[in-house]
Amino acid sequence: MRYFLIFLFAIILISPQITHAQSQSFSFSLTPSEVEVISSRDRTVPLSYVLTNTGDPTVITVKAYRLIVADSQGDYQLVPYDDSLIDFPRLTTSASVPGAVPDENSIFLGKPLLMNAQEAIEFELLVEIESNISERDFYIALVAESVPSSGFSDTNNVFLQGGVGSLVYISVAEGGMRTQKGSIALFDVKSPFSLSWGKTQYRLFDSFQKVPLVVRIANQGDRVFRSSGQLLVTHLG
């Protein structure tokens, strides 16, 4: 009996411990995904947002970043917003203004918030444009990040690739009017077949294939703008 008890005790000691882990589903969104503001100085512009959690309960933090355009190829840098910045709009939420009565669902910049499953919270981002600010464009990224946990990575680096973030374009101009200047730098079509007749070059395409176009828009001013237009195709025969 003594050997049997020792043997049973040894089996218990060397038996592997089995742990049960439950995986969590993280899915949340911040809308709208893009906002454009044109404003004069000495104004506060409220921007309405909805933060929605469609996954499991999780802790989410809303943060603001400066978006700095690195070059003309679409590269950018995200720099955390700081209240001490000079010549930059002041950012806060409506829950932070004097006289506000916040509750457990109030959104504050940089403060973690526990969101339940299937919960949606509406809040306002207040953009204060001071009287001495420069007349130019400012780019802001408002990001909702989850607190990193085992098996889940922070969404800070992927929000511009389809994650939970919103881009805010702010143009400060006297009277709320801005001057934009752009042009078509390149317009061409791609084809592996071509022929020349005099000074004219003709591109040949298969009538059953799509025609690839190359369009390059140049911004010759100092203001952000969106390009739009129509392409008119006429029959030459």
What does this 3D model show about the protein?
The chain is mainly β. The chain is 5% helix and 42% strand. The chain is built from one helix and 14 strands. It has one helix at residues 2-14, and strands at 28-31, 34-39, 43-53, 58-69, 76-80, 90-93, 113-115, 119-129, 137-146, 165-172, 182-189, 193-197, 200-204, 213-219. Strands 2, 4, 5, 7, 9 and 10 form a six-stranded mixed sheet that branches. A hairpin with a 2-residue loop joins strand 12 (193-197) and strand 13. The model is unreliable at 1-23 and 149-163 (pLDDT under 50).
In short:
This protein is mostly beta strands and 237 residues long. It has one helix and 14 strands, in the order αββββββββββββββ.
Overall mean pLDDT stands at 75
Q: What fraction, in percent, of the residue positions are helical? A: under 10%
Tally of individual helices:
1
Low-confidence stretches: 1-23, 149-163
Fold topology:
Layout: H1 2-14, E1 28-31, E2 34-39, E3 43-53, E4 58-69, E5 76-80, E6 90-93, E7 113-115, E8 119-129, E9 137-146, E10 165-172, E11 182-189, E12 193-197, E13 200-204, E14 213-219
Parallel strand pairs: 2-10
Antiparallel strand pairs: 1-3, 3-8, 4-5, 4-7, 4-9, 6-8, 9-10, 11-14, 12-13
Highlighted features:
14 strands; four-stranded antiparallel β-sheet; 237 residues
